Amino acid sequence: LTSSFNRMLVHLKASEASLRESEEKYRFLFDNGPCPIFVIDADTMMILDVNERAAHDYGYTKDELLEMSFADLGRYRDREKTVTQLQQIFTSDVALLPVLQHKRKDGSIFMVNYQARLCRYRNRPAVIAAVWDVTEKLEKHTRLIQTGKMATLGEMATGIAHELNQPLNIVRLGCNYLTKKINSGQSLSQE
User: How much is the pLDDT for 41?
Assistant: First the structure.
């Protein structure tokens, strides 16, 4: 009986060590992820957990974020849209959601894209969302489009200038001819 008890005790300690190692690994990956990660209650959309990157990027403390709804991070007019998009996950496994505007604690706005997945967190349905800032990417894309538009506009202006220059050159040549005739004292025929 004592050896059986000792084996159970050794097995229990090994299980506890394995569980502790697994928790440390999870916490390491969660907290050191390259982008903000949110765990969101599937029913209330309240934030249940966040990583350090989320607190850093949004400018809130972790405790402040845990008192907020995920929809609170967006603009007021986008709250319903955010909730609707997150609820779409209930019909599919993973969703890559469209770009939204989020705001930092200081009120500055930035564009985000996020991918979310339905999961269970502490025995209740939850959504885990990985968020990344796409503001710079969208600004570069916008500048690229503007550059393309300006290049096209330049080409059009060059073409129009060329088309206008041809008849103007003919008029200028005619005027030069007439001016030379008048300056040399030659008479001009009516034709």
Answer: 92
